[in-house]
């Protein structure tokens, strides 16, 4: 598998360096991954690939980006080990699809329903048996579009505390928006709970 | 077209208090529509797309959204209230403007208002939404627009929301608040309005149109049995606009407008004649037809009108002049065969050489606008010197007479403007009548009129030709007999010693001396 390099920035290499540090520290690290929209897909695919195949981690992937049925073949094609991932799909129902029930995915009605997102993520944590565990929230930017800033700050803080307590790493994916935007304000508000931050250059 | 922005824009130009950028428009990316809108929809406006089922409201809105991102880098939001997002997306897959990779939270964001309402605990199945419910929905829309910096928003449809509001006052407040809120965010909005019946002008409630900044009325127009879609800008605050109907069809590319064939006056009238090379006719015409003129060639069935056309084209082709034949009566193979037989010309070979184009269409298969478009496309792409339209009468079978006049007037100007010397063939219904040319002022349109007619003389049908009109030139006004030979038409002499040929009341000219002699013989007893 070739490494993912964006504008001279080797993302794969960076993950290989940072993720073991989290693990050595006992897990439960909260990382903000800020990526420009145009690199969002390759970045998240590479993140999931490195986590599941190179570090043998298992985890939960919450997506507001693609419907589960479409996502799985894309992950497969990118050599992501989907058997190590549980999914929380916040798109299918909002798009009017009636997805078949599957033990590997919870379908949430819309990004407004953050309580259901929280419940679904928590519900899957107990099923993760590997030593290294992760939750990827992809993306907080989308969830923020449907909720107020204070509500999302509260949601993220609560879930971060919960994950830290269980030694589960969290990667909060955000998409770069204009300076001064609500998204930007959320990043500023989350600073106290972040252990690390990765910025993909534009 | 000069851009005219009124109201607040002028205040801004004078250092006024409003945050309005002069001439700042949200382009649709559809050239004809942007022209009609004097550049585009003024940014921040709320436009009602009003129309019945199947006119293409959603397609226009989607095209506007996708063009917005692809051409102008403007993120957009599509909010559905009627069909699920996945269905709306599936319906767009075959359009070239559609690009699924752009559907993402920060580019083209698609969402279903019913899911949102469900999660906001609003019962969307009932028609009793409260003001608080409306406020909650507006708050989500504001969050979405602000959060992604959206510049375009589509609500498909506003009618479905209005049906769920308790009363007209709430409908008024909802649209007003939505429009004001989005205008402040400099986001341009298109609201779909489902017009179910003819008594509903722009919306079922009759309120939406007063609150909106603009109205686009989309409809099907029945043109003598053929249906064509039209869009008309009824209202557009803040800009000058063209309020006439624009006709379109929906193709793989989305909205495809029929280009207008405008009535434009000739700037330069060439004093050059193009010979017809029809034996004897050029002498009648003073040397041929003037370049960039239109000739109406009219006559009864079997008088050889099409043959005149073929010979006229042949004369040009042999000199290397491009010829175009628009045939509405016969197919290409039949025309090739006819031409080979008489006037003995191989049209197929000329077409292969690229100097001739024969375009045949069943007139019924095209709408009025498509017929105009056909002439425009062929002339602009092929640039012919000589053009034959065979025939106007076959178009009259499918258009009302007024449309035929409009068609003839428009192509007359268009062909002349493009330097074409054209013959428009027209068939008289009867054998002896010439009513068609005087009907509805058809005769006032062309520069020249040539009439072909039958006359019965001594129990045989003979044909004659006369030049009724030739603008800017003297011409032979006699009625001349012509015959059709293997090589084509041969115009001969006038009918000597015979009167009443034109009227059909034919009798011999009797000389005065013969009459005197007859009287003398009688008196002698």
List the helices and strands and how they pair.
The complex is a heterodimer of chains A (202) and B (525).
Chain A: E1 5-6, E2 9-10, H1 11-24, E3 30-35, H2 40-54, E4 58-63, H3 68-77, E5 85-89, E6 105-107, H4 114-125, E7 133-138, H5 140-145, H6 149-165, E8 169-175, H7 182-190, E9 196-199
Parallel strand pairs in A: 3-8, 3-9, 4-5, 4-7, 5-6, 7-8
Antiparallel strand pairs in A: 1-2
Helix pairs in contact in A: 1-2, 6-7
Chain B: H1 8-13, E1 25-26, H2 31-36, E2 41-42, E3 46-51, H3 57-72, E4 76-80, H4 85-90, E5 108-112, H5 113-119, H6 131-148, E6 152-156, H7 158-162, H8 168-184, E7 188-194, H9 208-211, E8 214-223, E9 226-236, E10 246-251, E11 254-257, E12 273-274, H10 281-284, E13 289-290, E14 294-299, H11 305-317, E15 323-327, H12 332-341, H13 347-353, E16 356-360, H14 368-382, E17 386-390, H15 392-396, H16 401-417, E18 421-427, E19 448-457, E20 460-470, E21 480-485, E22 488-494, E23 498-499, E24 507-508, H17 512-524
Parallel strand pairs in B: 3-7, 3-8, 4-5, 4-6, 6-7, 14-18, 14-19, 15-16, 15-17, 17-18
Antiparallel strand pairs in B: 1-2, 8-9, 9-10, 10-11, 12-13, 19-20, 20-21, 21-22, 23-24
Helix pairs in contact in B: 6-8, 14-16
Which labels suit this protein?
heterodimer; A: 202 residues; alpha/beta; Rossmann fold; 7 helices; globular; B: alpha/beta; 2 domains; nine-stranded mixed beta sheet
Q: How would you describe what is shown here?
A:
The complex is a heterodimer of chains A (202) and B (525). By secondary structure, chain A is an alpha/beta fold. Chain A has 7 helices and 9 strands. Chain A has a single domain, classed as P-loop containing nucleotide triphosphate hydrolases (Rossmann fold, 3-Layer(aba) Sandwich), CATH 3.40.50. Helices cover 41% and strands 20% of the residues of chain A. In chain A, a hairpin with a 2-residue loop joins strand 1 and strand 2 (9-10). The longest helix of chain A has 17 residues, at 149-165. Chain B is of the alpha/beta class. The N and C termini of chain B lie far apart (89 Å). Chain B folds into 2 domains: 27-257, Rossmann fold (3-Layer(aba) Sandwich); 273-494, Rossmann fold (3-Layer(aba) Sandwich), CATH 3.40.50. In chain B, helix 6 (131-148) packs parallel to helix 8 (168-184) and helix 14 (368-382) packs parallel to helix 16. The interface between A and B is medium-sized, with 27 and 26 residues.
């Amino acid at each position: 598998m070739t490494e993912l390099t964006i504008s001279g920035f080797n993302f794969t290499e960076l993950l290989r360096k940072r993720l073991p540090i989290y693990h050595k520290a006992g897990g439960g690290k909260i990382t903000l991954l800020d990526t420009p929209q145009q690199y969002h897909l390759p970045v998240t695919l590479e993140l999931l690939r490195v986590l599941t195949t190179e570090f043998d981690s298992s985890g939960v992937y919450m997506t507001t980006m693609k419907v589960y049925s479409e996502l799985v073949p894309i992950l497969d094609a990118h050599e992501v080990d989907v058997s190590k991932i549980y999914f929380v799909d916040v798109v299918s129902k909002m798009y009017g699809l009636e997805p078949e029930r599957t033990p590997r995915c919870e379908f949430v009605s819309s990004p407004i329903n953050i309580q259901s997102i929280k419940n679904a993520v928590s519900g899957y944590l107990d099923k993760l048996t590997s030593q290294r565990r992760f939750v990827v929230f992809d993306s907080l930017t989308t969830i923020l579009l449907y909720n107020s800033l204070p509500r999302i700050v509260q949601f993220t803080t609560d879930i971060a505390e919960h994950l830290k307590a269980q030694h589960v790493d969290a990667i909060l994916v955000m998409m770069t928006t204009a300076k001064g935007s609500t998204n930007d304000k959320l990043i500023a508000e989350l600073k106290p709970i972040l252990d690390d931050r990765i910025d993909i250059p534009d | 077209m000069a851009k005219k922005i009124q109201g607040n824009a002028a205040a801004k130009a004078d250092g006024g208090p409003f945050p309005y950028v002069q001439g700042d428009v949200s382009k649709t990316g559809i050239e004809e529509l942007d022209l009609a809108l004097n550049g585009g929809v003024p940014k921040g406006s709320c436009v009602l797309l009003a129309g019945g089922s199947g006119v293409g409201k959603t397609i226009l809105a989607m095209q506007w959204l996708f063009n917005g991102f692809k051409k102008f880098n403007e993120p957009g939001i599509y909010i559905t209230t009627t069909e699920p997002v996945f269905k709306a997306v599936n319906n767009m897959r075959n359009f070239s403007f559609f690009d699924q990779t752009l559907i993402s939270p920060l580019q083209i964001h698609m969402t279903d208002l019913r899911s949102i309402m469900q999660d906001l605990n609003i019962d969307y199945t009932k028609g009793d939404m409260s003001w608080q419910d409306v406020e909650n929905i507006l708050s989500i829309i504001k969050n979405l627009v602000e959060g992604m910096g959206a510049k375009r928003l589509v609500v498909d449809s506003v009618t479905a929301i209005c049906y769920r509001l308790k009363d007209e006052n709430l409908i008024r407040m909802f649209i007003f608040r939505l429009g004001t809120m989005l205008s402040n965010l400099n986001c341009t909005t298109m609201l779909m309005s489902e017009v179910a019946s003819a008594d509903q002008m722009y919306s079922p409630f009759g309120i939406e149109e007063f609150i909106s900044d603009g109205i686009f009325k989309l409809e099907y127009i029945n043109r003598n049995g053929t249906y064509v879609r039209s869009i008309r800008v009824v209202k557009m605050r803040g800009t000058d606009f063209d309020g006439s109907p624009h006709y379109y069809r929906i193709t793989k590319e989305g909205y495809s407008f029929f280009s207008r064939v405008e009535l434009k006056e000739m700037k330069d009238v060439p004093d050059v004649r193009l010979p017809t090379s029809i034996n004897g006719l050029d002498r009648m015409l003073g040397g041929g037809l003037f370049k960039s003129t239109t000739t109406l060639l009219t006559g009864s069935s079997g008088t050889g009108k099409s043959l005149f056309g073929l010979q006229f084209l042949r004369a040009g082709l042999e000199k290397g002049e491009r010829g175009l034949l628009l045939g509405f009566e016969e197919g290409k193979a039949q025309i090739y065969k006819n031409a080979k037989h008489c006037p003995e010309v191989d049209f197929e070979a000329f077409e292969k050489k690229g100097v001739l184009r024969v375009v045949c269409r069943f007139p019924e298969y095209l709408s009025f606008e498509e017929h105009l478009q056909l002439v425009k496309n062929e002339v602009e792409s092929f640039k012919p010197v000589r053009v034959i339209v065979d025939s106007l009468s076959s178009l009259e079978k499918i258009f009302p007479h007024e449309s035929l006049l409009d068609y003839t007037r428009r192509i007359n100007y268009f062909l002349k403007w493009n330097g074409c010397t054209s013959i428009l063939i027209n068939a008289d219904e009867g054998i002896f009548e010439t009513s068609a040319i005087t009907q509805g002022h058809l005769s006032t349109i062309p520069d020249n009129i040539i009439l072909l007619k039958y006359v019965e003389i001594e129990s045989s049908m003979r044909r004659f030709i006369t030049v009724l009109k030739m603008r800017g030139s003297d011409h032979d006004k006699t009625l001349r007999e012509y015959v059709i030979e293997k090589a084509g038409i041969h115009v001969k002499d006038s009918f000597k010693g015979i009167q009443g040929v034109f009227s059909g009341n034919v009798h011999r000219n009797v000389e005065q001396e013969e009459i005197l002699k007859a009287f003398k013989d009688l008196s002698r007893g």
